[in-house]
Amino acid sequence: MTDRRRISSGSPYEPKIGFSRAVRAGDTIFVSGTVAWGEDGRLVGRGDVYAQAKQAISNIEKALIEAGASLNDVVRTRIYLTDISRLEEAARAHGEAFGEIRPASSMIEVSALAEPQMLVEIEAVAVI
Question: Residue 123 belongs to what H/E stretch?
Answer without folding.
Answer: strand 120-127
